[in-house]
Amino acid sequence: MIPELGQFALVLALGLALIQASLPLIGAAQGRDEWIALARPMAAGQFVFVAAAFLILTHAFTIDDFSVRYVAMHSNTALPFAYKVAAVWGGHEGSLLLWMLILAGWTLAVAAASRSLPEAYAARVIGVLGIVSVGILSFMLLTSNPFDRLLPAAVDGNDLNPLLQDPAFAIHPPMLYLGYVGFSVPFAFAVAALLTGSLDKRWARWTRPWTLGAWLFQTLGIALGSWWAYYELGWGGWWFWDPVENASFMPWLAGTALIHSLAVTDRRGIFKSWTILLAILAFSLSLLGTFIVRSGLLTSVHAFASDPERGLFILMLLMLITGGALVLYAMRAGRMEAEGGFKLVSREAFLLLNNILLVVATGLVLVGTLYPMVLDAAGYGTVSVGPPYFNTTFSIPMLPLVLLLGLGMHASWLGMRGETLVRKLVPAAIIAVLGGIVLTVVVSRGLDNVLTPIGIIAGLWVVIASFWDPIMRLVRRESRTVPLSRAQWGMIVAHAGVGLFVLGVTVTSAFTIESDQAMAPGDSASIAGFDFEFRGVREVEGPNYDAYEAEVAVRRNGSPVTLLAPQKRVYRVQRNPMTEAAIDPALRRDLFVALGEPLGGNAWSVRIQYRPMLRFVWLGALLMALGGLLAATDRRYRAEQRQAAEVTPGRLVGNTETA
Amino acid sequence: MTPRRQRMALIAAVVAGVAVSVALALVAFRENVLLFFSPTEVVAGEAPTERGFRLGGMVAEGSVSREEGSLTVEFVVTDFANSIPVSYTGLLPDLFGEGQGVVARGQLNTDGSFDAEEVLAKHDENYMPPEVAEALERAHPEGSP
User: Fold this and answer.
1) Beta pairing class for A524-527 and A513-519
2) pLDDT score of B131
3) Strand A524-527 and strand A530-541: pairing?
4) Which of A32, A174, A364, B45 is the most exposed place for a label (fewest CB within 10 A)?
């Protein structure tokens, strides 16, 4: 009975979403206040019912209700409790429900935090989000209902895919979806601005904190996914240019461009139509990502559903939402007036370059990701585009991007003399080049690629240039100047994160040493100055798996470094073997050991990796997210809200509270 | 710059950016696109010998063998119409096994055997790589394997 209530809640949510997607928009167009006032209550009601459905599904998992097909497919009585909860999003239907819950959550947040916006505009934003809700909810109810019954009920469940029984997995999808789905908010703001027709630059100011919020969650989500792939997939890579990874990376790239172009529109009132287009692009890429992951076109751990009907539905949804927004854009973009021009050496110009390079990078990833799928769908055979394509083409726009970044963040709005800018940063550049050469010599083990020192110098350059202002303030003991704002600190921290990331990627891809070995007890392998001694394999037992566990002692120059215990697990329900790598992490280097299979005799195959500075990759991503958090919580956004609320208190009360 | 010239510059820059990206993509594609072939296609001589490709099918029952203590493993990839012997040195994926779908990336030798640099297996027992399912379908249009 309870699961049926969950389905009923989804139907009610769809009903409210239909009202939310229609009446407030019509009301805003015709000036009917009572219809405009429907937006917020509908958003709140929709959230309540979607949350109820989500809780009901979670409940079905926690009580092992195997009469629900989805629960029987993805859980098991022996599954630890925390993973029963996380298993809610361990498959296609539940993932969609999480997607929907997060969309309803963002909509509720917009409804609650948009009191300072003009009522008609806020109603349009919420109405556009309602349209997206209608699409996703009908998708769930028509093709992917998580509450479908299984008759007769299963005695026990099929268990959660062992790869997904992991703490990082438990939080990776919610984070990623908070980002993915969060881009629906700038999208809705952009479409609402197009609908309003009067496209002044206030639109950009309102959108900025929301975009930063979505972007920072997506940054965390992607970083978590990469970390999970590194230690859980068992092969020691941290990024595979897998279509599913690309699906989350493309909206991130477009979102990064959007953050920067919003800054220009907010500050200078230019690039308006470009910014709107980027907002549409970022969310369309999110939907495209959902399509890629959910359509079953992929050979991937994420490809739960191989149902063409589902893929077709999402494709139609994508075309309706993106197509509709683009048609509106074509009709209205001509009305947008730039409020001035810009000079060649100015913050605006650098941000324009940033946007072009990021969009080119997005395009390159898009082409490499879609090409095989399009070719396959058109019947021209199956091809795959390997990591070398992405590594080569992606670094071409990225190198100028990071080199220009250091200059751009010191360029003034409205323009300055190029000479002044260069003179300011010459010392930083010298330090970066010298430091880069020293670091290359320290970490290098036989240099084979000129790009390596260039990447190291570029990374250091970005870190140093980011902190140059605060450093100079310290050095000169300037206390009279205005303190740096939180938004400025956000920019500094996020860009320093980019620098650390570049440094990490460069060093770890150039100097990683990997070796597959056949090892019998007592055998030893020497890699990057570390001695790995294989001491043998024993059997161990986990809560829902049995495992072989190897003992590998690591020494350096005779003194012990660590003892690693990689496992080969067999989960009792699904009977699939799974590699559980053992890792000794450190900021300077990771040591990674994975246990392969028995080779006969006492020997096992073992993979050993030495990865210098890998942690910088994720540390960089963390700093980027932290920078986004600092910028999103800057005082000026809150000050703006208070100000607006003080100016028009009567109207706010009149439109909402009395409705 | 005037707003108008600035807009023109913006459009020119975007067009140039897109053009460069397409050019780069095409060049990199030519070098990095890997084609997929089934054993039947390889036997028919459709697969190249001078460059790498991906070979997919099922690992034939009873075909996996290795010398004791050696990292090199040999197995046969079949689509039940034709078979190709494959040799691989290194760690095999967790779900590799006889009677399982597999995709191997590597080079074809002149004697008709295949040297794999990378072996991919399916991710769970309900799941078959789509390429493999299709290749099996083509080799056996009417019956299920």
Assistant:
1) unpaired
2) 61
3) antiparallel
4) B45
Q: Which pTM does this prediction carry?
A: 0.89
Write the CA distances from A150 to A3, A70, A144, B71, integer angstroms.
Answer: 12, 8, 14, 45
Both tokens assigned to A382: 């199956």
Nearest-CB residue to B29 (from A341, A356, A385):
A385
A383: closest CA among B31, B119, B96? B31
CATH number at residue B106: 2.40.50.140
Instruction: For A379, name the nearest residue in chain B, comparing CA atoms only.
Output: B134
Same domain as B85, residue B74: yes
Q: CA-CA distance, A376 to A373, in Å (whole number)? A: 5
Claim to verify: residue B80 and residue B27 sit in the same structural domain: no
Contacts of A212 (CB under 8 A, 6+ apart): A259, A490, A628, A629, A631, A632
Per residue in A61-80, pLDDT (tens digit) is 999 999 999 999 889 898 89
DSSP code per residue over A595-618? EEEEEETTEEEEEEEEEETTHHHH
Chain-chain contact of B29 with A388 (C-beta, under 8 angstroms): no
Whether B145 is in a domain gets the answer: no
Residue A652 vs residue A148, higher pLDDT: A148
**Do B54 and B111 belong to one domain?**
yes
Q: Which of A150-159, A458-467, A559-568 has the lowest mean pLDDT?
A: A150-159
pLDDT in tens, A145-198: 999 998 888 888 888 878 788 888 788 889 999 998 999 999 999 999 999 876
Mark whether B69 and B132 lie in a shared domain.
yes
Q: Is residue B43 part of a domain?
A: yes
Within a domain: residue B99? yes
- Which domain range does residue B93 map to? 36-139
What is the rounded CA–CA span in Å between residue A572 and residue A567?
Answer: 15
Residues B47 and B108 both lie in one domain: yes
DSSP structure class, residue A656: I
Report how far residue A12's alpha carbon sits from residue A137's, in angstroms, rounded to the nearest whole number. 10
3-state secondary structure of A590: strand
Q: What is the mean pLDDT of residues A607-628?
A: 95
State how many domains chain B has.
2
Look at B33 and A516 and tell me if their CB atoms are within 8 Å: no
Q: Residue B144: inside a domain, yes or no?
A: no
- Residue A442: predicted pLDDT: 80
Chain B residues close to A163, C-beta within 8 Å: 123
ipTM value: 0.79
- Whole-number Å distance between alpha carbons of A547 and A564: 15
Taking the CA of residue B110 and the nearest CA in chain A, the distance in Å comes to: 23
Q: Do the strands B33-37 and B53-59 form a parallel or antiparallel pair, or are they unpaired?
A: parallel
pLDDT tens for each residue of A484-523: 899 999 999 999 999 999 999 999 988 899 999 999 999 9
